[in-house]
């Protein structure tokens, strides 16, 4: 049986969530909110409440820390996500992964489509699946459409690691986790990653664990 809270207006649920202040609790895999998909944002939150919610997502993402966070990851089924990546990695890693700094961005009602057929595979993790990473093959370049938090149209091409981030976060809004796209033979604990698989690309892991890269 659904609880009364499940039927509460989204604005009330967000107000309740923001009440304590500080970083928001991150929902872990197994919670149905991560699998239900999201409602398109269409003014369910008043501008001031939306601004507070976006700021809370930013604070939570930084505290985790992560480079992206989608609303369902804090229990809110709205099609909103935030991204930001200072890319604090060695030059060799940045070059291999196409990882370049990304400023703080708010994605409202985002959707992506591939640009070309190239794919890239790298280890990927998720704040909602703590303690694990796996190799995911994703489109190397995507076109992202949507809006920002002020309703301005977004139509932009992302490549390299930024393309991976926007695909990961947009997938969350469709009820998908990175594990749904992962090469499960590559699944590695955080400890195993630190000990074995810190190379710029997962080629060594693929050979040792027995999976194929695209």
TrEMBL record:
Names of the cofactor(s): Fe(2+)
E.C. no: 3.5.1.88
InterPro entries on file: Peptide_deformylase, Peptide_deformylase_sf
Annotated active site: 169
Cofactor note: Binds 1 Fe(2+) ion.
Enzyme class, spelled out: hydrolase
Binding site for Fe cation: 126, 168, 172
Family annotation (CDD domains): Pep_deformylase (cd00487)
Keyword Aminoacyl-tRNA synthetase (UniProt): no
Catalytic activity: N-terminal N-formyl-L-methionyl-[peptide] + H2O = N-terminal L-methionyl-[peptide] + formate
NCBIfam families in UniProt: PRK00150.1-3
Annotated protein name in UniProt: Peptide deformylase
Species per Swiss-Prot/TrEMBL record: Streptomyces hyaluromycini
Gene it is expressed from: def
């Amino acid at each position: 049986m659904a609880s009364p809270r499940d039927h509460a207006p989204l604005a009330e649920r967000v107000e309740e969530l923001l009440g304590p202040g500080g970083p928001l609790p991150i929902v872990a895999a197994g919670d149905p909110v991560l699998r239900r998909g999201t409602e398109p944002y269409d003014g369910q939150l008043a501008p001031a409440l939306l601004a507070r919610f976006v700021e809370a997502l930013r604070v939570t993402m930084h505290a985790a820390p992560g480079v992206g966070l989608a609303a369902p990851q804090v229990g809110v089924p709205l099609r909103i996500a935030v991204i930001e990546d200072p890319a604090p990695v060695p030059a060799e890693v940045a070059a291999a992964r196409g990882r370049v700094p990304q400023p703080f961005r708010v994605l409202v009602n985002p959707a992506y489509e591939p640009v070309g057929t190239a794919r890239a595979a790298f280890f990927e993790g998720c704040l909602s699946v703590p303690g694990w990473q796996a190799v995911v093959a994703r489109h190397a370049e995507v076109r992202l459409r949507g809006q920002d938090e002020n309703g301005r149209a977004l139509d932009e091409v992302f490549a390299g690691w930024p393309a991976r981030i926007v695909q990961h976060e947009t997938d969350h809004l469709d009820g998908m986790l990175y594990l749904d796209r992962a090469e499960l033979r590559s699944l590695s604990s955080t400890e195993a990653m630190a000990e074995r698989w810190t190379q710029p690309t997962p080629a060594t892991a693929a050979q040792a664990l027995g999976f194929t890269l695209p």
